[in-house]
Write a structure and sequence with these properties.
- The complex is a heterodimer of chains A (111) and B (132).
- Chain A is mostly helical.
- Chain A has 5 helices and no strands.
- In chain A, α1 runs antiparallel to α2.
- The mean pLDDT of chain A is 87.
- By secondary structure, chain B is an all-alpha fold.
- Chain B has one domain.
- Helices cover 80% and strands 0% of the residues of chain B.
- Chain B is built from 5 helices and no strands.
- In chain B, α2 runs antiparallel to α3.
- Chain B is globular.
- The chains are: A mainly alpha (111), B mainly alpha (132).
């Protein structure tokens, strides 16, 4: 439960997705397997992003055309990604998320 | 880039971001926001708001697909996320009071530690963990 709070807190603080903090907390703290942690993170992102959409959407900053085009691609991509998630081994998945964390860390340092 | 080419690029990039999100358990804002500012010419605020609107249906589609495959626990995940939503409101309020670059540095160090740990775990051949 604290993981959700921490994920949302950081998401609100930094404007980054909660997944980047929830996945490591689910794995290292709650002891989830990497695959299950990724699945839990995706589910938890639903209410977090819904609350943010309501909060920020009210400001009228959304480029609706861009959002629709991106979503058309991403809902197809999400199914493909989940298909990979279902088949990939724990270790390649750890390496993949480790590389993502490294890239995100470098991006944050450079900002 | 403009017109049809831009929208085609947005659909293609959306596919890549969605695939990464589904595999890595993230929303995809990390990829979508820079693309919108650098390629589509959106402002930072527009990019963040638009990204959130893309993340929501992406996470819903991914979660439905995962539930069908029996991976994770969607009900528990939604409850964790509901608390996260409350945390997000508090976080946004705290962010106003704290210097952003300090928060970014703390998070960058956290992610670097996560990267080292996961890459070590993933690359160690003598790992005793259960292989899926």
């Amino acid at each position: 439960m604290t993981i959700g709070g921490a994920g949302g807190l950081l998401s609100g603080l930094l404007g980054v997705g909660g997944g980047l903090i929830m996945v490591p907390l689910l794995v290292f703290w709650a002891g989830y397997r990497q695959r299950d942690a990724h699945a839990m993170s995706l589910g938890a992102i639903i209410p977090i992003s819904l609350a943010s959409v309501i909060t920020f959407g009210a400001a009228g900053q959304v480029r609706l055309g861009y959002a629709i085009a991106l979503t058309l691609g991403s809902i197809v991509g999400a199914r493909v990604g989940v298909g990979f998630l279902a088949r990939i081994g724990e270790r390649p998945l750890k390496i993949a998320f480790g590389l993502l964390a490294a890239a995100a860390s470098i991006l944050l340092f450079l900002q | 880039m403009s017109g049809v080419a831009l929208y085609a690029a947005l659909v293609a990039f959306g596919f890549l971001a969605g695939a990464a999100a589904g595999l890595l358990g993230i929303g995809g804002g990390l990829m979508i926001i820079p693309f919108l500012t650098l390629v589509a010419g959106a402002s930072q605020h527009q990019a963040e708001a638009t990204s959130l609107l893309v993340i929501l249906p992406t996470a819903i589609v991914a979660t439905i697909a995962l539930r069908r495959k029996g991976i994770g626990d969607a009900a528990l995940a939604l409850r964790i996320g509901a608390l996260g939503a409350a945390g997000g409101v508090i976080g946004a309020l705290v962010a106003i009071a704290l210097p952003a670059h300090v928060l970014r540095l703390v998070f960058a160090v956290f992610l670097a530690a996560v990267a080292v740990r996961l890459l070590r775990d993933g690359l160690t051949t003598t790992q005793t963990g259960v292989e899926a």
